[in-house]
């Protein structure tokens, strides 16, 4: 398995774990809806050196940090993403659509884990 294939599969799995729909995933990694279909079929792969690759890695880090805080509880993950959080100043799901917002959410969660 190539690095790109592993990153693609892991990004798709992270989105599923977070309960993101295809549109939310597309916004989070900066691709079109058509590209999401291609990624699911592995007709297209996410390259680690691209913006989409960096954002995919952030999504994976988000899952790991969030699971460290709430356990592997799907309901708690989804509830946290869709509720206002004072630490990030917004509903985290609304921040995932930009690189800066995604980074803010991941850095916030990782700072909470390290406490």
Keywords:
70% helix; mainly alpha
The percent range for strand residues is: under 5%
Structural class: mainly alpha
**H/E element order:** HHHHHHH
Distance between the termini: 36 Å
- Oligomerization category of the chains in this entry: single chain
Count of domains: 1
Tell me the number of strands: 0
* Low-pLDDT segments, ≥5 res: none
Major beta sheet, specifics? none
Mean pLDDT: 95
How many helical elements?
Answer: 7
Q: What percentage of residues falls in helices of 4 or more residues?
A: 55-70%
Tell me, briefly, the overall form.
globular
Radius of gyration: 13 Å
Structure description:
The protein has 115 residues and is mainly alpha-helical. It has one domain (3-113). It has helices spanning 3-18, 22-29, 33-41, 51-70, 74-81, 92-95, 99-113. The mean pLDDT is 95.
Write the layout of secondary structure elements.
Elements: H1 3-18, H2 22-29, H3 33-41, H4 51-70, H5 74-81, H6 92-95, H7 99-113
Question: Can I get a quick summary?
Answer:
By secondary structure, the protein is mostly helical. It has seven helices and no strands.
């Amino acid at each position: 398995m190539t690095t790109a294939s592993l990153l693609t599969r892991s990004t798709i799995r992270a989105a599923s774990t977070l309960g993101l729909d295809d549109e939310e995933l597309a916004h989070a990694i900066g691709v079109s809806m058509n590209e999401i279909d291609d990624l699911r079929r592995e007709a297209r792969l996410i390259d680690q050196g691209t913006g989409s690759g960096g954002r995919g890695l952030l999504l994976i880090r988000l899952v790991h940090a969030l699971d460290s805080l709430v356990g592997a509880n799907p309901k708690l993950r989804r509830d946290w993403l869709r509720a206002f959080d004072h630490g990030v100043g917004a509903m985290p799901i609304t921040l995932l659509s930009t690189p800066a917002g995604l980074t803010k959410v991941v850095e916030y969660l990782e700072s909470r884990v390290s406490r």
